[in-house]
Specification:
The chain is α+β, with helices and mostly antiparallel strands. It has a single domain, classed as 2-Layer Sandwich (HIT family, subunit A). The chain is 26% helix and 18% strand. The chain is built from three helices and five strands. Strand 1 (19-22) and strand 2 (26-30) form a beta hairpin. The longest helix is centred in the middle third of the chain and has 22 residues, at 56-77. It is globular and about 50 Å long. The structure holds guanosine-5'-monophosphate (5GP) and zinc ion. Zinc ion (ZN) is lined by residues 2, 5, 7-8, 47, 98.
Length: 136
């Protein structure tokens, strides 16, 4: 636990939240500034800043927690679909430095886009040249 981390404070119950799913490893609660009806963040109970600070076991646990959260949202709100993902690192838009998976319930009339609307800047290398960087 980090004493100055808002999500650690939520886990410690020092800051209130609207929990929609919880198990031994994961807490899922409604985002305070929702981008969709039922927008939820799923967090590991152990503080980790990014995915690179998490063990493989913790990755399994948060994946299962994400699925349970989606099942709960599906049952209660019955959305038409979901987007899930996380902002990993400041360049990707991460503000709270405690890993969290965003779960956006999606509705056929909500006017939103897909993952492809996050960024559209393919860089200055053809795909084939990028592939060569992975050759060894
Ligand atoms: P990030 O940009 O780091 O991926 O998103 C952090 C998310 O956490 C934001 O969507 C923000 O609204 C949410 N958030 C920040 N502080 C709180 C809080 O105290 N309570 C809740 N429920 N959500 C929070
Ligand atoms: Zn934390």
């Amino acid at each position: 636990m980090l004493t100055d981390c808002i999500f650690c404070k939520i886990i410690a119950k020092d800051v209130p939240n609207y929990t929609i799913y919880e198990d031994d490893h994961v807490l899922a609660f409604l985002d305070i500034h929702p981008h969709a009806k039922g927008h939820t963040v799923v967090i590991p109970k152990r503080h980790a800043e990014t995915v690179f600070d998490m063990t493989d076991e913790e990755m399994k646990q948060i994946s299962i927690g994400m699925k349970r959260t989606m099942e709960r949202l599906k049952k209660v709100l019955n959305p038409d679909g979901f987007n899930t993902g996380w902002n990993d690192g400041q360049a990707a838009g991460q503000v709270v430095p405690h890993v969290h998976i965003h779960v956006f319930p999606r509705y056929s009339t909500d006017g939103g886009g897909s993952m492809h609307s996050i960024v559209k800047n393919p860089g200055d290398m053809p795909v084939g040249d990028v592939a060569k960087l992975f050759a060894n």
